[in-house]
């Protein structure tokens, strides 16, 4: 297994406050890694350290085989990564194309490399309709596409994205997210992402959850769902009294809210025999898959970390 990122016992102290408290994790090359946590958990601090923008207090970080070294500018790491932060770095007065080409030149790309790489980013980020527009005149979603394109112009092998879709309307969010996913899958790029949208985390290869500067859960979305979420079925009975009698006779525990009876399942398949039995009594039902939202809420509701 080849690791794109390896973090061991990373700590960051701001004055008296310990924002990151000895975290360790690895990110396999060519995977989508989701880094989750509530506000103030330490996500941005960690991502800024990995991107060489902030000095760590202690711990070991290896990016693309290069060791992060507080005593130099980590140029090898910088060349091998692309970064998109929440605040844009593009020049409002330049067009999207000018901005991106200018960025490419700072990496010393040849004319041919610049043309080829521009073509590459343009295809994935759908720049055709915005490339001649001034960055300052673009909508939020268009800006995001340009920001990501700028981060990719030197064809890095790791892309860091800090909440790439926050603040976008659902349709634009979907569009930007599709572009990220397609890029990751088709080019085998490593994508390190922080997000508050659980449907984005649900398609990651690996999820790590941070709370108060410590890792409180990690695993694949499926493994986390198995541990922290559960499937359920909601039933509406023709006659509530008969419904309750049915549930009690079959020793099925339930909760009830506004005439909807919810049963916890061990898997969605468990719904089938139950539905067969309950069919004459019910007017409607819904089988609900455990989600990453449940995982996140469950982890966050657990008591304070030590
Ligand atoms: N420059 C700084 N000086 C002092 N404290 C800081 C600084 N930057 C962050 N912190 C503190 O460190 C903790 C972690 O902040 P950080 O921004 O890394 O969290 P986050 O998980 O990225 O939150 P969000 O989701 O809101 O972006 C917070 O308590 C924050 O107040």
From TrEMBL:
Gene source species: Lysinibacillus capsici
PROSITE patterns, alphabetized: ABC_TRANSPORTER_1, ABC_TRANSPORTER_2
Keywords assigned: ATP-binding, Nucleotide-binding, Transport
Residue intervals of the ABC transporter domain: 5-237
Family of this protein: Belongs to the ABC transporter superfamily.
One Pfam family cited in the UniProt record for this chain: ABC_tran
One annotated GO molecular function: ATP binding
Protein name (Swiss-Prot/TrEMBL): ABC transporter ATP-binding protein
Taxonomic lineage from the root: Bacteria, Bacillati, Bacillota, Bacilli, Bacillales
């Amino acid at each position: 297994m080849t690791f794109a990122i390896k973090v061991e016992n990373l700590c960051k102290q701001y004055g008296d406050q310990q924002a990151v408290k000895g975290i360790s994790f690895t990110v396999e090359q060519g995977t989508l890694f989701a880094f989750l946590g509530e506000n103030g958990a330490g996500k941005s601090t960690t991502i800024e350290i990995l991107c060489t923008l902030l000095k760590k207090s202690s711990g070991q970080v290896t990016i693309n085989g290069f060791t992060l070294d507080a005593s130099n500018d980590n140029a090898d790491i910088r060349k091998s990564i692309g970064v998109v932060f929440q605040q844009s770095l593009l020049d409002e007065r330049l067009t999207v194309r000018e901005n991106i080409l200018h960025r490419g030149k700072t990496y010393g790309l040849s004319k041919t490399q610049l043309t080829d790489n521009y073509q590459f980013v343009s295809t994935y980020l759908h720049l055709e309709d915005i490339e001649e527009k001034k960055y300052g005149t673009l909508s939020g979603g268009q800006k995001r596409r340009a920001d990501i394109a700028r981060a990719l112009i030197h064809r890095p092998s790791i892309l860091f994205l800090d909440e790439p879709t926050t603040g976008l309307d659902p349709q634009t969010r979907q569009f930007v997210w599709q572009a990220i996913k397609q890029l990751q899958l088709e080019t085998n790029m490593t994508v390190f992402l922080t997000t508050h949208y659980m449907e984005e985390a649900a398609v990651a290869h690996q999820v790590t959850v941070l709370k108060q500067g410590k890792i409180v859960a990690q695993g694949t979305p499926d493994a986390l769902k198995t541990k922290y979420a559960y499937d359920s079925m909601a039933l509406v009975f023709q006659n509530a009294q008969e419904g309750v009698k049915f549930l009690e006779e079959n020793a099925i525990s339930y909760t009830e809210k506004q005439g909807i009876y919810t049963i916890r399942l061990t898997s969605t398949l468990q719904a089938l025999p139950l539905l067969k039995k309950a069919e004459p009594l019910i007017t409607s039902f819904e089988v609900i898959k455990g989600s990453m939202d449940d995982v996140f809420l469950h982890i966050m509701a657990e008591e304070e970390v030590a």
